[in-house]
Amino acid sequence: xxxxxxxxxxxEDLLSAREQQKLAELRTFLAEEVAPHAAQWWRDxxxxxxxxxxxxxxxxxxPVQQGYSPLFAGLxxxxxxxxxxxxxxxxxxxxxxxxxxxxxxxxxxQKDRLLADALSLRITGAFALTEPEHGSDVAGGMETTAVRxxxxxxxxxxxxxxxxxxxxxxxxxxxxxxESGKVRGFLLDASLPGVQRRRIENKTALRxxxxxxxxxxxxxxxxxxxxxxxxxxxxxKHLLRGSRIMVxxxxxxxxxxxxxxxxxxxxxxxxxxRPLASFQLITEQLVRMLGNTVASTGMLARVAExxxxxxxxxxxxxxxxGMAQAALAKxxxxxxxRETVALGRSILGGNGIVTDYRMAKVFADAEAIYTYEGxxxxxxxxxxxxxTGISALR
Length: 394
Description:
By secondary structure, the protein is of the alpha+beta class. The chain has helices at 17-34, 38-44, 52-57, 70-83, 85-105, 108-119, 138-141, 237-268, 280-309, 323-347, 359-371, 376-388, and strands at residues 125-128, 145-149, 152-162, 170-176, 183-189, 195-199, 212-222, 270-271, 274-275. The chain starts with 16 loop residues before the first helix and ends in a 6-residue tail after the last helix.
């Protein structure tokens, strides 16, 4: 039986022929190199570094920098997440945060030293922002310090939940200069003396992603490794906006996966002598899942258009920085995702709680998507501030 694709409104038709071909190449890679192994990697909490050369060969790093559309960039993340949320998360941290920061804020010397190797995954990067006591409030509460000492800086403090943190070669690390109060960014060689890394254990989501606790004790970093283009936390807003949008696309990808798995199961699984799909309640649940997925994709596709053409403000239609639009897309899509994956898990019954059937892994990983790059609640408050002009953030 040929089933229609979960891209029910054919958003992919909006891509250029070149982009559609490249997306097809990505699907082939994911089907051959990732899908057969993803569940075992997840169970073992193992990161498959052996696939990185083949992933790099696709030349998908920072697609917009290569002339691809923001819609294509988003669908790349959705398609990766559809196969394995953890691989998509690795890709986002390395390319959409670390490599993108080199493009946007790196000096010519820094780009010459690092960019080519980072694009080809000969070196890997992390984005070290959040701290043990500061997640959503890290902009104002950052405790990690950077003190100028001649032509170098001394870094002290701790970071937590740093994706790729156990194995990365470099971290884009953020610290506050006590004297000025400004947030500084550093390209930190992770092998420097004073850098300690410890993998976060016992996770129930994104088990393939190697999140780390980072401790910095008098780590000396050259002034040449400070991102000269960063002078305050405001300077990195476009990085965080882009990352938040990509997590919204992850919410789309998780829903695409849930629809794929639940629909195939409902067609093939026999109960009471007929397929599950023949029962009205099951059909209604599948259609609700599909509707959530299409609505989420549509919102993210519109955000992709705004990324290219500029953002209007919800108040007075004046130009804005797009943070509220990104926050709404991430919060809405991740909320719909939660419902979609829960319905999918329910359709599989008891088989929905074992990773053999994929749905359990999608269900578990969805909780991480719901939380990171701003929780649902924080993103909702950002949007509320934009549409009312009154901040409920304290």
